[in-house]
Amino acid sequence: MSTYAPASATRPGRPRVIPRAASAATPRDEILHAAAELFVNRGFAATSTRDIAEKVGIRQASLYYHFAGKPGILAELLELSVRPSLEKVERIERECPAEVPEAALYLLALIDADTLATVPHNIGRLYRMPDVRSSEVFGEFEPALQELTAAYGRLGAQVVSGPVAATVTTDQLGGLLIQAVEVVIRIRSRGATVTPAQARAIAATCLRICGVPEVRIARASVTADEHLYPGTMIRTIGDQAHTSK
């Protein structure tokens, strides 16, 4: 999506300032991890590529062998906060049974909660930060966020009750639903961990926003498990929630 293409990762960089410890992480991953922590805690504008390089333990020049600059790093981090959820929308819509349409919205919310709960350093906070939102990178990322919001609205519109439908448009409903899931960001901002039970409660809340009766919410949860577990669609939270039933 972004026009900020990373520099080649195959060229040898200058020697590391700090010897690299044995790790499965690649230098590129280490840069992303360090940048995520600095951007979230210090701010995007206040963080330099020198700061990132020093945190990784490499020379600043070596960073440019992996990324063209700070905007490219931010672009990749922003993608990590929405792309895993967005890539699963088509499968959700295809595989959820038509007789239980609530399961599709429930599952999207659960997957999205998982994404936001497991990305490093709570990087879901980034697209809320003023210095990020005012950047050119955010303008290129925003269509992906809008696409995910539209998916929430589309799935919500399939199950919304008459009284709720009379008060909000599909676009507004999508915004309400994605905001309900983004409570994960606030939970993590307080230093807490999002539990499987909380993730399921968030998914159920999305259905309640649509006016879905409790009996249908319970069926949506069971249907999501029966039709779409196990597998790779849901990682930590989904797998734990399923096995803890």
UniProtKB/TrEMBL annotation:
It comes from Nocardioides luteus. This is HTH tetR-type domain-containing protein. It comes from the Bacteria. PANTHER family: HTH-TYPE TRANSCRIPTIONAL REGULATOR BETI, HTH-TYPE TRANSCRIPTIONAL REGULATOR RUTR. The keyword Ubl conjugation does not apply. The keyword Cell membrane does not apply. PROSITE patterns: HTH_TETR_2. Keywords: DNA-binding, Transcription, Transcription regulation. Residues 48-67 bind DNA. Residues 25-85 form the HTH tetR-type domain. GO terms for molecular function: DNA-binding transcription factor activity; transcription cis-regulatory region binding.
